[in-house]
Amino acid sequence: MKKIIIGTLITILLALTVYILWYTFPTQHIKTFEGVSFQLESEAEAEKVNIHINGVVQRSLNGQRTFEGTIDIEGEVLPVPEDQRKVVVRFLENGLGSIIYVGYKEDGKPYTYSYGTMFINKNLSKLTILKGDWTAANGLIISAPAGDRTEAVQISNELMREFLDGKSLR
Q1: Are residues 107 and 132 in contact, defined by beta-carbon separation less than 8 angstroms?
Q2: What is d(CA 21, CA 30) in angstroms, rounded to the nearest whole number?
Q3: Are the C-beta atoms of residues 33 and 144 closer than 8 Å to each other?
Q4: DSSP assignments along 55-123, one per residue
Q5: What is the pTM (predicted TM-score) of this model?
Q6: Strands of the sheet with 110-120, listed across from one edge
Q7: Preceding peptide of 79 cis, ω within 30°
Q8: What does the pLDDT profile of the chain (170 residues) look like in tens digits?
Q9: How many whole angstroms separate alpha carbon 137 and alpha carbon 38?
Q10: CB distance 43 to 150 below 8 Å
């Protein structure tokens, strides 16, 4: 009887270990999204942009997701040296994560640069970025994959559902 109990416990522990390793194992993402950049309060034409993602997403045991890698938006000039473009984005329960670059200037002084806020879905096939100190009146939104402003707003509403607390972007 002892052998059965010990064998069962070992099987359960082995299964639990395999599940934990699978759940927390980082997934590599090298993707280029075709997206749209737009402003909520402006009916001006949305601008198409390409977003390049190269990094890993990892989940902790409590479900928190973390992205570590590079996020490049074509046409954007960042005040961050090329060799310091790696960013770590920790996503909260509502899907919000801050894109903050940290590094050292040429004179050795540390700096931080906040690009904005990012929302992703579970498998990083959709994303929304609120650029800068975002407000509905003057903030830019970048959503992908999207071909026009309508698709971009739909993706933003989907990804930001909890953050918007029942409201919708238009």
Answers
A1: no
A2: 22
A3: yes
A4: EEEEE-TT--EEEEEEEEETT---SS-GGG--EEEEB-TTSEEEEEEEEE-TTS-EEEEEEEEEEE-TT
A5: 0.83
A6: 87-90, 65-73, 47-59, 27-39, 140-144, 127-131, 110-120, 96-104
A7: no
A8: 788 888 888 889 888 888 888 888 888 999 999 999 998 877 777 899 999 999 999 988 888 899 999 999 998 888 888 889 999 999 998 888 999 999 988 888 899 999 999 999 988 899 999 998 777 667 789 999 999 998 999 999 999 888 777 666 76
A9: 12
A10: no
Find residue 48's DSSP bridge partners.
36
Which of 89, 150, 156 is closest to 121 using CA atoms? 156
Count of CB atoms within 10 A of residue 136's CB? Answer: 11
